[in-house]
Every structure is written in C-alpha cells, then in structure tokens.
Amino acid sequence: MLTLPIVQPEAVAPAKPRKPDWLRVKLPVGREYANVRRLVDEHKLHTICESGNCPNMGECWGAGTATFMILGNICTRSCSFCAVATGRPTEYDTDEPRRVAEAIQLMGVKHAVITSVNRDELKDRGASIWHETVVRIKQLSPETTIETLIPDVKANWEALDLMIAGGQEVVSHNVETVGSLYRLVRPQAKYDRSLEQIRRTKAAGKRTKSGIMLGLGETPEEMYQAMDDLVANGLDILTLGQYLQPTKRHLEVAEFIHPDLFAHYREEGLRRGLKYVESGPLVRSSYHAERHVNVPI
Question: Is 75 annotated to bind ligand?
C-alpha cells in the first residue's frame, strides 16, 4: 500500500490592505510650485513637505505656500511612523531665523507654518531659535500670520514658554495617535505629557491645535476618548488624516479609513466641544492652515 506524505499547508500571510482610489494625488507641477522649490533650494531651507513626504505638497506649493522645518532635518526621536531622518543632529544654524524670514517675505506668504525636528540634546530644546524665527518673520512680514507646530519639550516648560511667546497666532502640537498606541507609534513620547503641553499652551492664552493619524489600529471608542481628552485639556482645532507608510521600514497601515468615517469623526469632534475639525484621508497638520487663524480663542 502506497503511503503518501502528509503535506502541511503553508502559512498564508494576511493580505495587506490595498491603497484605495480616494488616496490618489496629483504630482506637483506648475510655475508656482517650481518657484517655491527654487526659493527653498536657494535659501538652503528644510521643509516638512519634502522630509515628511506630504501628499498635499503639490497643492500647497502650487498655491505658493509651504511649511518650513527649522533646526535641521535630523531628529533625535525614532517614531515608527515618521519619514524624517533619525540620528545625532550636528546642525545648529543661528542664522536660520533670518533666512526663513527673508524667504517668506520673498514668497509673499500670507500664512506661514513653522515646524521642527525634536532636538532633545539641546538644553532649551531649540526654543531660542523658535522664538527668534517667529519674531523675525513678524518684523519682515507683519501681515503674515503664523502657526508653529512645535515638538514635545519633554516637560521643559520654560522652553515651551519661550517657544510660544514670539507672537504666532496658532500653536500646534500633534498627539499623533490614541493613548494605547503610544509605545508602538511614539516610543519616546508620553500621551499625558503631550496633553499637558497643550493644556499649558492654552493657559498661556494661545489658539491650540493638534493632529491625529488614523489607520494605525485605533478603535472608534479610542478616538472618542482622545477627542474628549483633548477638549478637556483646552484644544481648539483638530486635524485628522490617514496614516500612509513612508517606507518599508516604518509601521504598516493597519486600515485605510473610508471618507465617510472621517466625516463622522469630524461631526463627533464638534459635538464633543472642539471648535474646528479638519478631517479627511489626505488631511495633514498644515492643510488649510490659513483657515485656522480665525478660530475664536
């Protein structure tokens, strides 16, 4: 009698979710886009548009606007979602505030967004550069409104006070995800510490803003809790967008969130007390940022 060997079926890895049609974006083209890129290159500036692989770069740069990243392009953190390079920064350019301000003046930017990498190795977390950058922009372009998207200061509240004291209209700090996913997504950050940073910013009389990426494995209940936490800590404006894996080394997308659910989260956020919610698959922190300066404090 012929005995056939028992063949175990090969384990089949779960299929990765396919990128849906609503996440398709146009390649950046056009005269205005080319002009912004030329100015950024000439002034040796870093933009989060490029470093963060933002899907809206074509739209925003095509409108003659950009989000500038100060304090270099190497971050001391190693967040598992972010495309910005991680390492030991060597760049500390005290002339950067002047160059950023002059570039914004040349571009005729009406609303500027400034962000930065984390500089945990600096005693003041880079706060002096932050403050001078905002002051210089206001000096050269007094009609330009400013949003500063600031990093986690690791509870250095003196540094926070200096960062937000330059005269900017909006101060943003992204919590990025729900509390249960912090160890996975932001291993060197703390959810409660980011909430406290927002609370202290609001207590200083600032217009507060934050952002969350969806599709990392969060549940609707966790999203509702995060919204409640943010409202309880004084948040005014919230942006919600789809997480997109920047490289194979980064976290994979757990789920592509349907636009209808983004619309639902927007309504829920407003119902729970947020003053403004920008919610959609391609929304990023700086998307339609010029609209946020009109949100009442």
Answer: yes
